[in-house]
């Protein structure tokens, strides 16, 4: 019998081994990791052309199948030569937005060349984001997104992808999410390989992106008619249009669709 | 300085019998010996100007910037020990960044000045650190308009319309008072010129040394509320104006006699205080 | 030798606002052998005079490479120099791994400044006892920086630190307009070596005691020692 009053009621060391005090001082909360996205943004699509890149994403934030938020910006300019397009969880996207904001603020600290030679380049932004994504997945706590970094670097188009797994790749046309299935084949009709980039004009690329956004709005049930489209062009610089709308649609067939929703025919 | 040698001035965080903290007073001396810094408020912003002494012909002109940015909307100039100034600015950046993370809005200038004041004050409390050897002028624009503060080694800070510190502070202050009372409605570009003129004027007592003028501004109309270096053409214009107003016909930026300059360098090396200003 | 009561540590200001411990640290640089740095619009060059402890010992390394585009030479306490060069190597690696970006010389200088400043404001340590010349070529071209233990880092066209370095400084000031326009790296190295000669007293430059480094456009930071320096003697 241990006569120390502080040990009364405690399991005796003799029988149970020394008491592990770290159990008593453990956090009352379970450790929490992201296991699914909540509010989501759908596809980001993009392609290179001879003088730059185009990237587009619609403005919808879906809560499951509920089209919950109708005006969410998912294209983020970083400096003058880069646009980051983000799909997936919107709150994680907002976290990434803060990181990009901080990155830009820090690049301006004591940087005499912040406007030209030492301005942020797309590859800097991409490498950083890819590291963030990979580090988070390695903690088993990913940011639930797929991102496309588009821009101009040393006069050449730059386009790369990274997702919640930390996987990265590059191609002359890229899309995330549903767009990777539905839009990418359409974009590849114009630029399938790197050699096609030189042959593609800004007009053709923009037309192709707009067409792909239309197809996505037709067939992706978590998409919206309003979207943003950004162009980074070697001559015109970075232009972000936040008021693009899918046009020239045909919905005459819709009245004949039967068997869905609440209609009682 | 009658109390020198009584022992109460040998350690920070110690009061003398008459209630003074000597180490803080000595830190003020370090700041007062530094090159002149000026800050001025105008209608919709602030301008910062510093005298950058050219200690060697080998220094790359236009580089070695002294004015720093704390956050996008806040600038900082200081006189005294330049590395201490960098330390303070780094702290300011941490405060600005943490504020933005917490409140999702840029830090208001009064809040920043207060936090920096607390940090500087904390360096007067312990004998394991020394006070900051600088007086810093912090200015910028927030939702409530333009703000200008000057922060002393004791941790005291005051809001100003026009602030000056460093060697030439006396004449700079006198001139600031005149300008601000005579022309209370200065716009950004006028203020830049006046600040340039004041630095040139404050340099008069220190004429044997070469210097460069460095300026930054932060205004709603001219820089969209961002703290930026004054663009080259306006800076040149301001320098021309300053020289004309001060009746300075010789070009101060490159008018040094070589041999004199050499001698100057050697002397400073011997004293070892060149880079400490 | 004792000047006063105010020079015992780094946390005490003198009545005139000076920090003697920091000033003494600057003196430590002058105990080291001389090193000279110079840059043109295309290249940056470092040269240094190496010392040996005695006849049988090797010569103390004076130039350290930090990255493909950046290196430094030192004067003063060599171990302190190694601590700082290791720090810079880490920072270079961090920049390229995380941002795919070359560490700019400006940033490198600021990082060193901030690291050195910490040692001058708190009790229990001492300032670094080494001066550094950083040479590198980044996105904005070639740069030469001088670092001091006080936490000041300055960008210069040419500089010299260490014993009797004033001779080289005077030489570099006088010939500034000539070497700034040099197109050829070898010619710039010759200027630097000539500047170094202005600092010699009893020594004679040889393949043993001369160390050279050059960096520039399409030229990674390269250190030349021993026989490789003979063309410049």
Automatic annotation (TrEMBL), chain A:
UniProt-listed InterPro entries: Ntn_hydrolases_N, Proteasome_beta4, Proteasome_bsu_CS, Proteasome_sua/b, Proteasome_suB-type
Its annotated compartments are: Cytoplasm; Nucleus
The UniProt entry's GO biological process terms, in alphabetical order, are:
proteasomal ubiquitin-independent protein catabolic process; proteasome-mediated ubiquitin-dependent protein catabolic process
**Gene Ontology annotations for the cellular component aspect, listed alphabetically:** cytoplasm; nucleus; proteasome core complex, beta-subunit complex
Name the SUPFAM superfamilies on file: N-terminal nucleophile aminohydrolases (Ntn hydrolases)
Entry keywords, A to Z: Cytoplasm, Nucleus, Proteasome
The family classification in the record reads:
Belongs to the peptidase T1B family.
Role according to the record: Non-catalytic component of the proteasome.
Q: What is this protein called?
A: Proteasome subunit beta
Upper lineage is: Eukaryota, Fungi, Dikarya, Ascomycota, Saccharomycotina
From TrEMBL, chain B:
Q: Which InterPro entries match?
A: Ntn_hydrolases_N, Proteasome_alpha, Proteasome_alpha-type, Proteasome_asu_N, Proteasome_sua/b
Gene Ontology, cellular component aspect: proteasome core complex, alpha-subunit complex
* Pfam families reported in the protein's UniProt record: Proteasome, Proteasome_A_N
Q: Where is the composition biased (Acidic residues)?
A: 247-261
Give the record's keywords alphabetically: Proteasome
Coiled coil (UniProt feature): none
* UniProt cross-references to CDD domains, sorted A to Z: proteasome_alpha_type_3
GO BP terms: proteasomal ubiquitin-independent protein catabolic process; proteasome-mediated ubiquitin-dependent protein catabolic process
Q: Where is the Proteasome alpha-type subunits domain?
A: 8-30
- Answer yes or no on keyword Transferase: no
Cite the residue spans of the region called Disordered: 241-277
Q: Where is the composition biased (Basic and acidic residues)?
A: 262-271
Family stated for the protein in its record: Belongs to the peptidase T1A family.
The record's function comment reads: The proteasome degrades poly-ubiquitinated proteins in the cytoplasm and in the nucleus. It is essential for the regulated turnover of proteins and for the removal of misfolded proteins. The proteasome is a multicatalytic proteinase complex that is characterized by its ability to cleave peptides with Arg, Phe, Tyr, Leu, and Glu adjacent to the leaving group at neutral or slightly basic pH. It has an ATP-dependent proteolytic activity.
The protein in question is named KLTH0D00902p
- Organism of origin is Lachancea thermotolerans (strain ATCC 56472 / CBS 6340 / NRRL Y-8284)
UniProtKB/TrEMBL annotation, chain C:
Main location (coarse class): cytoplasm
Q: Cite the InterPro entries for this sequence.
A: Ntn_hydrolases_N (IPR029055), Proteasome_alpha (IPR050115), Proteasome_alpha-type (IPR023332), Proteasome_asu_N (IPR000426), Proteasome_sua/b (IPR001353)
Ranges of residues in domain Proteasome alpha-type subunits? 6-28
> What is the protein's name according to its record?
KLTH0B09504p
Q: Which UniProt keywords apply?
A: Cytoplasm, Nucleus, Proteasome
**In which compartments does the protein localize?**
Cytoplasm; Nucleus
A single Gene Ontology biological process assigned to it is: proteasomal ubiquitin-independent protein catabolic process
Q: Got a GO cellular component term for this one? A: nucleus
What species is this protein from? Lachancea thermotolerans (strain ATCC 56472 / CBS 6340 / NRRL Y-8284)
Q: Which family does it belong to?
A: Belongs to the peptidase T1A family.
Protein function: The proteasome degrades poly-ubiquitinated proteins in the cytoplasm and in the nucleus. It is essential for the regulated turnover of proteins and for the removal of misfolded proteins. The proteasome is a multicatalytic proteinase complex that is characterized by its ability to cleave peptides with Arg, Phe, Tyr, Leu, and Glu adjacent to the leaving group at neutral or slightly basic pH. It has an ATP-dependent proteolytic activity.
């Amino acid at each position: 019998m241990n006569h120390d009053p502080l040990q009364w009621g405690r399991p005796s060391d003799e029988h149970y081994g020394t008491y592990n005090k770290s159990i008593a001082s453990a956090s009352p909360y379970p450790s929490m990791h992201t296991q699914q996205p909540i509010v989501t943004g759908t596809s980001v699509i993009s392609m290179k052309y001879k003088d730059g890149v185009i990237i587009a994403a619609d403005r919808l934030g879906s809560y499951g199948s509920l089209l919950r938020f109708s005006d969410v910006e998912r294209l983020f300019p970083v400096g003058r030569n880069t646009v980051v397009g983000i799909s997936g969880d919107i709150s994680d996207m907002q976290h990434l937005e803060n990181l990009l904001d901080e990155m830009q603020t820090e690049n301006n600290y004591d940087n005499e060349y912040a406007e030209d030679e030492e301005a942020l380049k797309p590859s800097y932004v991409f490498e950083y984001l890819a590291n963030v994504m990979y580090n988070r997945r390695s903690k088993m706590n990913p940011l639930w997104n797929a991102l496309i970094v588009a821009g101009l670097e040393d006069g050449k188009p730059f386009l790369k992808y990274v997702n919640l797994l930390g996987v990265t790749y590059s191609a002359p046309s890229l899309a995330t999410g549903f767009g990777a299935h539905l839009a990418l084949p359409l974009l590849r009709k114009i630029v399938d390989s790197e050699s096609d980039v030189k042959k593609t004009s800004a007009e053709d690329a923009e037309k192709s992106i707009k067409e792909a956004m239309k197809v996505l709005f037709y067939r992706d049930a978590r998409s919206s008619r309003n979207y943003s489209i950004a162009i980074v062009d070697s001559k015109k610089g970075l232009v972000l249009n936040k008021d693009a709308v899918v046009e020239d649609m045909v919905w005459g067939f819709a009245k004949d669709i039967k068997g869905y929703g609440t209609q009682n025919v | 300085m009658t109390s020198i040698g009584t022992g109460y001035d040998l350690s920070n965080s110690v009061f003398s019998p008459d209630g003074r903290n000597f180490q803080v007073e000595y830190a003020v001396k370090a700041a007062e010996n530094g090159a002149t810094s000026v800050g001025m408020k105008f209608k919709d912003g602030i301008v910062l100007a510093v005298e950058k002494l050219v200690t060697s012909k080998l220094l790359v002109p236009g580089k070695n910037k002294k004015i720093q940015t704390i956050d996008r909307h806040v600038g900082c100039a200081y006189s005294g020990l330049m590395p201490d100034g960098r330390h303070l600015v780094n702290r300011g950046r941490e405060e600005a960044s943490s504020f933005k993370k917490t409140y999702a809005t840029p830090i208001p200038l009064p809040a920043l000045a207060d936090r920096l004041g607390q940090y500087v004050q904390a360096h007067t409390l312990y004998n394991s650190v020394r006070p900051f050897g600088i007086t810093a002028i912090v200015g910028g624009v927030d939702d409530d308009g333009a703000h200008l503060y000057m922060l002393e080694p004791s941790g005291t800070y005051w809001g100003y319309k026009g602030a000056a510190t460093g060697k030439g502070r006396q004449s700079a202050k006198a001139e600031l008072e005149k300008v601000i009372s005579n022309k209370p409605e200065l716009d950004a570009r006028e203020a830049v010129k006046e600040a340039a003129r004041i630095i040139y004027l404050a340099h008069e007592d220190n004429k044997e040394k070469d210097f460069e003028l460095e300026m930054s501004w932060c205004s709603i109309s001219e820089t969209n509320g961002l703290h930026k270096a004054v663009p080259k053409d306006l800076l040149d214009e301001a320098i021309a104006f300053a020289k004309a107003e001060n009746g300075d016909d010789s070009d101060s930026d490159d008018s040094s006699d070589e041999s004199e300059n050499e001698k100057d360098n050697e002397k400073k090396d011997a004293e070892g205080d060149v880079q400490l200003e | 030798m004792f000047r006063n009561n105010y020079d015992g540590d780094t946390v005490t200001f003198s009545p005139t606002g000076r920090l003697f411990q920091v000033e003494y640290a600057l003196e430590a640089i002058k105990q080291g052998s001389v090193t000279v740095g110079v840059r043109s619009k295309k290249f940056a060059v470092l040269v240094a005079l190496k010392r040996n402890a005695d006849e049988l010992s090797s010569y103390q390394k004076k130039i350290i490479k930090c990255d493909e585009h950046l290196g430094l030479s030192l004067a003063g306490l060599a171990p302190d120099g190694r601590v700082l060069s290791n720090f810079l190597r880490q920072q270079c690696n961090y920049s390229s791994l995380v941002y795919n970006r070359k560490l700019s010389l400006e940033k490198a200088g600021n990082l060193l400044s901030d690291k050195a400043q910490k040692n001058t404001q708190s009790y229990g340590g001492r300032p670094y006892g080494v001066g550094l010349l950083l040479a590198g070529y980044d996105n904005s071209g070639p740069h030469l920086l001088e670092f001091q233990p006080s936490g000041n880092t300055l960008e210069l066209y040419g500089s010299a630190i260490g014993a009797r370095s004033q001779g080289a400084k005077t030489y570099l000031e006088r010939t500034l307009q000539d070497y700034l326009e040099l197109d050829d790296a070898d010619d710039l190295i010759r200027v630097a070596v000539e500047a170094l000669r202005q600092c010699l007293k009893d020594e004679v430059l040889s393949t043993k005691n001369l160390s050279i480094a050059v960096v520039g456009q399409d030229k990674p930071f390269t250190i030349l020692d021993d026989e490789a320096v003979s063309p410049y003697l």
